């Protein structure tokens, strides 16, 4: 991501917008510019601390509530920090439903989907950019149109198709029905168009097959795009809820969001299980937040890639 | 671009040394088909065919159980309009869409501006603000359900502490949508911020230098340079967020299930209930068609309006 953070005039306007008025106008005599910058910086920090605090609050509240007792949770005024942390909420929640299984399912399904998408995206994008065939542009147009359409609108039909295939409540159903990423095709096509023609021509002269050209020339050059889209789609699929909920029935096949929601309904109805629900939410959300720290730059890249399009 | 018809024999040379797994140059239609199929088969079965069938089904009265169904013409559409359910659903959808898109876009821009110039700790701020986006909506919707618990929830504690009345939140038809909107904005604000961060980085610095020489005020520079220069991003964001808002499901399903009294039943949730709770496939298909047409029009607006009025690259 290429961002310059040095265009001062813009920030000067911003500083004025956010600096607290009670600090007053900068005195004209003693280095006004400098003082204004200082006031502005302080104002920006104040604004950002308030915003980040609000955004982090649900996470903090989730964690502190996961180690409270039920009484503390229902106390008024709310207890900020439990008198004694009930760490046993975590093992209790873990064994109250098959969270290990749900997490494995989500991980396995998301990984399989990303692996398949990587291969079929690469192949389709290669065909569209490097092969000549009748109706090529029409085909790409068709793929683009599916990108615009609201996917949930297809669920009612896809559901019936899956049931006819006998794939409801199965890994193959979860995986195959999500095995195309139009966004990935779109971005990888873009990347493959950048591959220098000479490289491909030279490889072909040496008798390299399409398969070889794809994986030994195009793929390595477009690797950052594949990683970006792969991470993005992994997270989306890992967290996926609506469609997996429709097509899974048994406890064994639940993805983590579906399993957590089920636990919430069953345990939440009695009210006494709230600390366990918070504990479950915590051990589901925390790994994602920690993973996020490592893949953050790729996600930022994903946003800038998608914004660079149209 | 026009499709280039393949010319046989042009690349015979490459084929001469080919091993069985090495299709000759650009000559093999089989290779082409082989490269297309792995993506095109699932795309056809789970995207294209359903999209076509859903149109067809919207003219039938199938209930998902019966082996047969009748063609009922436009009856499903008529029912939608005459029974009056659609009015409230459309209002809810509009409320939710405007209620999430506007704060997300404005807030995202504000945050991006706050972080634009060098600032100590800016990467930490950015990380925290962006982080909700990777968390599962379901888990965080459950956390928000607890925060907005009417009796002992954190939200009402804060409200009463500053002298505001406690609110019934998700259990009242007046406030339930507000809760759904807050969760949604909370989760996608950082995403809009990153979008704008990228856009702000692309504004050429010399534009500001020129304006500075003319003695423009900060506000004037923001209004006359920044806003117009990032207008394509704003436009693109509004379109994407609107299309996404039309498809919001997880938070509604976890927090309110469309209630109370249908106050959070959006178009998509109505569709879900028709299809998977009432098994009225025909009716659900009609709603799906409506959703597709609506999304299509917004996507089209992006092309038409985008080309005509937003001229900066």
Automatic annotation (TrEMBL), chain B:
Gene3D superfamilies, alphabetized: MetI-like
Signal peptide boundaries: none
Organism domain of life: Bacteria
GO CC, one annotated term: plasma membrane
A Gene Ontology BP annotation from the UniProt entry: transmembrane transport
Membrane topology: Multi-pass membrane protein
Domain ABC transmembrane type-1 per the UniProt entry, residue ranges: 90-302
Entry keyword Transmembrane: yes
UniProt-listed CDD domains: TM_PBP2 (cd06261)
Presence of the UniProt keyword Phosphoprotein in the record: no
Region: Disordered, residue numbers: 1-27
Record's keyword terms, sorted: Cell membrane, Membrane, Transmembrane, Transmembrane helix, Transport
Predominant subcellular localization, coarse grouping: membrane
PANTHER family: ABC TRANSPORTER PERMEASE PROTEIN, INNER MEMBRANE ABC TRANSPORTER PERMEASE PROTEIN YCJO
Protein family per UniProt: Belongs to the binding-protein-dependent transport system permease family.
Name by which UniProt lists this protein: ABC transporter permease subunit
Lineage of the organism: Bacteria, Bacillati, Actinomycetota, Actinomycetes, Jiangellales
């Amino acid at each position: 991501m290429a961002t310059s953070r040095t265009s001062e005039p813009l920030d000067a306007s911003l500083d004025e917008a956010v600096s607290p008025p009670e600090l007053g106008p900068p005195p004209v005599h003693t280095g006004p510019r400098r003082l204004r910058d200082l006031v502005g910086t302080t104002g920006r920090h104040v604004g950002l601390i308030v915003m980040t605090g609000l955004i982090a609050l649900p996470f903090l509240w989730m964690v502190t509530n996961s180690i409270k007792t039920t009484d503390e949770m229902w106390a008024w005024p709310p207890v900020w920090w439990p008198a004694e942390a009930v760490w046993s909420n975590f093992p209790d929640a873990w064994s109250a439903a098959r969270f290990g299984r749900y997490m494995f399912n989500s991980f396995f399904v998301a990984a399989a989907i990303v692996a398949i998408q990587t291969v079929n995206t690469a192949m389709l994008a290669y065909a569209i950019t490097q092969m000549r065939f009748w109706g090529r542009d029409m085909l790409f147009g068709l793929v683009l149109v599916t990108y615009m359409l609201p996917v949930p609108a297809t669920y009612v039909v896809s559901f019936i198709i899956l049931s006819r295939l006998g794939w409801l409540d199965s890994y193959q159903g979860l995986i195959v029905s999500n095995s195309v990423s139009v966004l990935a095709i779109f971005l990888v096509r873009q990347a493959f168009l950048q591959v220098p023609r000479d490289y491909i021509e030279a490889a072909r002269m040496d008798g390299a097959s399409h398969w070889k050209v794809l994986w030994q020339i195009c793929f390595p050059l477009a690797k950052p795009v594949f990683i970006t889209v792969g991470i993005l789609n992994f997270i989306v699929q890992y967290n996926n809820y609506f469609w997996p909920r429709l097509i899974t029935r048994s406890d064994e096949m639940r993805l983590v969001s579906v399993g957590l929601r089920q636990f919430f309904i069953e345990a939440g109805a009695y009210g006494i299980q709230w600390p366990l629900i918070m504990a479950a939410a915590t051990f589901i959300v925390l790994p994602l937040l920690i993973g996020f720290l490592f893949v953050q730059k790729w996600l930022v890249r994903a946003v800038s890639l998608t914004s660079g399009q149209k | 671009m026009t499709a280039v018809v393949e010319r046989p024999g042009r690349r015979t040379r490459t084929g001469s040394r080919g091993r069985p797994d090495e299709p000759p140059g650009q000559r093999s239609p089989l290779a082409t088909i082989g490269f297309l199929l792995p993506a095109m088969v699932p795309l056809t079965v789970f995207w294209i065919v359903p999209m076509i069938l859903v149109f067809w089904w919207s003219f039938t009265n199938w209930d998902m159980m019966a082996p047969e169904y009748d063609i009922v013409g436009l009856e499903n559409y008529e029912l939608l309009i005459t029974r009056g359910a659609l009015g409230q659903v459309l209002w809810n959808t509009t409320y939710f869409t405007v209620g999430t898109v506007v704060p997300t876009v404005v807030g995202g821009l504000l945050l991006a501006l706050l972080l634009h110039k060098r600032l100590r700790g800016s990467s930490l701020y950015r990380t925290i603000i962006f982080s909700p986006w990777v968390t599962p909506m379901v888990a965080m919707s459950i956390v928000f359900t607890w925060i907005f618990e009417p009796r002992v929830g954190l939200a009402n504690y804060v409200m009463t502490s500053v002298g505001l009345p406690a609110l019934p939140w998700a259990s009242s038809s007046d406030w339930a949508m507000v809760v759904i909107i807050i969760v949604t904005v909370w989760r996608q604000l950082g995403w809009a911020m990153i979008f704008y961060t990228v856009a702000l980085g692309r504004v050429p610095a010399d534009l500001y230098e020129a304006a500075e020489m003319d003695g423009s005020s900060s506000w004037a520079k923001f209004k006359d340079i920044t806003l117009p220069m990032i207008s394509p991003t704003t436009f693109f964001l509004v379109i994407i967020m609107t299309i996404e808002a039309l498809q919001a499901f997880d938070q509604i399903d976890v927090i309110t299930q469309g209630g109370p009294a249908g106050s959070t039943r959006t178009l998509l949730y109505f569709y879900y209930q028709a299809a998977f709770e009432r098994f009225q496939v025909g009716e659900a298909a009609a709603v799906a068609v409506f959703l597709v047409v609506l999304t299509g029009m917004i996507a089209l607006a992006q092309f038409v309006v985008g080309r005509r009025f937003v001229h900066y690259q």
